[in-house]
Target: Transcriptional regulator, LysR family
Amino acid sequence: MTPNWDDMRSFLAVARAETLSAAASLLKADPATVGRRVARLEEALDEVLFVKSPQGYRLTAQGQKLLSHAVRLEQTMLDAREDLGGQGSELSGQIRLGAPDGCANFLLPQVCAAITAENPDLDIQIVALPRIFNLSKREADMAITVSRPEAGRLLVQKLADYRLHLAAAEDYLAKHSPISSMAELSHHSFIGYIPDMIFDKELDYLSGTPFERVRLASNSASVQLNAMRQGGGVGVVHDFALPAAPNLRKILPDVFSLKRSFYLIRHEDDRRVARLSRFAESLSEGIRRELVRLEALA
Model:
């Protein structure tokens, strides 16, 4: 029995969603149908592709091997559809983009909205998670990171530098002692990351400073920003997020300033996938342009 494309699409959806119901939602199909297609593919290949449990579906070693081939087949089908449809430079299909939540909340919505406006047949899924994405498991088609990966079969492209500063709400500053030096910060409450949940060393903003105690902490940059907006204390904030929080004011910007970088990473197998390359180019241009605009307003 030769595998067919519908069965491979169902396999891909279950591999990504890890449950039949979630995969069925992605495919706009019935869960029982998705289950039958996966079973038919396993029969055709004479391989067990998933370990099934009450917690969901997990790829076996053989399923993991098939995944990369299925993704390449999917990209080939999407490229063929674009070419046969005569859509020229327009993008179509679905692209899933992973990003740290600061970037996902304050940069990607407007950048991706502009891209979808120019490509009406394109669906973009932004996955905001405070951790590093595993592209080998195809959790996303590409991901933005805050440090350059040192291992793995990955394509890595530096997108842009960005800056961070100390900030606090105007109400907080009005109610507490003035801050004219770094030493005076010791009298203030700090907002930051939960120390044992910092997933990347580039996010360890307070390491090596006298202000390592964090009285109000979260693993989310967006939660930290909202805590600052509510007068919870002093924190480190992205300059590109400040226009979204007009009641925040920078503190000691000439004394404390951090520079970090965003990197776009893709799986090496996607090097020749034209639609992903075109999307990456549009995304890179949009992020650079939006960073310049927002940091000028900060």
About this structure: The mean pLDDT is 88. The two ends are 61 Å apart (CA to CA). The domain at 1-86 is CATH 1.10.10.10 (Arc Repressor Mutant, subunit A). The longest strand covers residues 154-169.
